[in-house]
Fold this protein.
Amino acid sequence: MKIALYYAPATCALAPYVTLTEAGADFEVRPLDFRKRQNFTPEYLKINPKHKVPSLVVNGKILTENVAIHQWVHQNFPNAKILPADPWDELQAIALHSWCASGIHPYLSRINNPAKVCDTAGSSDSVVKVATEFLFENFKIDDDLLAGREYFFDHFTAPDAHFFWCCRRATQLRVDISAFSNVFSHFKRMQERPSVKKLLAYEKQMNEGFAKTA
């Protein structure tokens, strides 16, 4: 099986990199430099016309969107248990993963680039303020879900990887998440997983390579 993951630094493609690593999958990473708009090249738009990452290519077949990609990983590497074995818990994990993608990620995007959603002069500070308030509302819910737990379920699952990206992206955008003690503990705990350490080392190497060709 030939597996390729299209990846860009700081993006939510972090999540499938981590879960594919957790699954022991043999996969190739194909890096994209968004600063050079490599995600808008004709070649990449044929792979993903949404010009986003992640994109997973398996034996020439293309799959996009984190929730779907993680379903594929779970189906093809069931021993990795990146989704819970119990059918109801599996659905709950998919719900959590979907929430990261659609309920948390958009607010991070607004904080990162407020002009993308409102180009009215002087609106950026207001967009960031409101987006941060909604982001914190979501983090409070997650903080309650993680109370007394190391992960969202009784072991690491795909939602943990995606939520780690949400927390990491928040900190990269200088959003202080330390008030959410369970969320912050989860964030620190995830950084100790070998799969995450491998990802962070790879991303550092990738950024250094991009800098040399800037």
